[in-house]
Amino acid sequence: MNDKERLLQSIFEKKGTITAIIGLSKNAGKSTLLNWLMQKSPINNLGVLTTGRDGEDFDTVAKLQAAQHPKMSSSHSNKDNKKPHPKPKISVPPKTLFVTTTKVVREHSPYLSIIEKSRFKAAGESLWLVRTETLLNTEIVGPPTVKEQIEIANEMLKLGAEHVFIDGSFDRKAISLAVDVKNIVLVAGAGVGELEEVKKRIRYLDLLTRIEEVSEGKRLQIKESQEVKEQIAFFSKKAAKPYVLDQFDRLIGNEKMLKLYLEKEEIEALYLPTSLTYRAFSIIKGAFFNRNIKLIVKHPLNISIDNESLERFLPQLYTMRKMAINAVAVNSYDPYGKHLDCDILRAAIRKDFDYPVVDVTEAI
Questions:
Q1: Number of structural domains the chain divides into
Q2: Which of 51, 65, 93, 296 sits between 20 and 30 A of 210, alpha carbons compared?
Q3: Do residues 25 and 82 share a domain?
Q4: Cβ distance 206 to 325 under 8 Å?
């Protein structure tokens, strides 16, 4: 089984799920991969939305014109081609549910069935949930918050979609943190930087996937300790259950005080419901390493420290919800014409990581 087949199998083996396509940089190649996945889907009834806007006529951030069709030029094999690659339209198959604006609904009204006007908006524009009657190269849009995006995705599943794709991003407040998202496909390439920087970024996320999930017993104890609001919880050798302290209602601003407390008390583990930044970690890490204290985080993406520190800290890290990456799609071009040799890029990722690796330009 080749990597393309492995990728498709990992995504479509279970119906009724949500896949997030996550880019490590702006215009990473998510739309190109999304088009390929929908084209190759063994499922007829799909749903698709985005955490922003995709397939638009002009990208005001990247200042790129949309392509006339979703397929990219095969010129990716030419190392010397420095011309920017246009953004692809989203090629939505027949009978697919998607979310878009009033303008798009009016433009393509003969080819759409309107399901409902959504109660959500994006940049002040009304959003519509529609279904295509034929193959349509168009623009898709999504509401601004993760909660709203997941609500629409679940509504698509209730309306008969057997799989939902969300074109998203990778950060602490992103769709990848949502419990409902079962699959993550990472898209990385020239837009991130040189080859070593691409590998470094993937390495960091790969380390995050290795953080073990906390036991069910501890998870229930933590939930019980967070009755009033989410805050730091302490597991002590002297206490039968975790406890919270008002002076540690947050980490930011309390790093030095927390370090002193951890060095003085017999703490076995700490639950941190917020982010662990590099600055905070640089202050408190001595207490964790010297006392071998375990840290439980809400989600692996709440950790934002350097690769070396993460690798060293990994045996002491646990998460309330484990993160998994199904595959890595690599893109040898960024939208401004920068190029990494596609064969070298693909081979380097396959050598260092045990994920299916697909070149988004090769995939079309």
A1: 2
A2: 51
A3: yes
A4: yes
Is residue 28 domain-shared with residue 123, that is, in the same domain? yes
CATH of the domain at 159: 3.40.50
Residue 317 · residue 309 · CB < 8 Å: no
Asked if residue 74 has pLDDT above 50, the reply is: no
**pLDDT-based confidence at 332, cuts 50/70/90?**
confident
pTM for the model stands at 0.82
- DSSP, collapsed to helix, strand or coil, labels residue 214 as coil
C-beta of residue 160 within 8 angstroms of C-beta of residue 122: no
Amino acid at 88: P
The enclosing H or E element of 50 equals strand 46-50
pLDDT at 283: 97
Asked whether residue 342 carries a pLDDT value surpassing 50, the answer given is: yes
The overall average pLDDT reported for the chain is 86
Classify 212 as helix, strand or coil: strand
Q: Kindly state the tokens that stand for 135.
A: 């193959």
Burial label for 264, CB within 10 Å (0-12, 13-18, 19+), is exposed
Instruction: Let me know the angle formed at the C-alpha of 334 by 333 and 340, rounded to the nearest 5 degrees.
Output: 40
SS3 category, 211: coil
43 and 186, same domain (yes or no): yes
83 & 15 share domain: yes
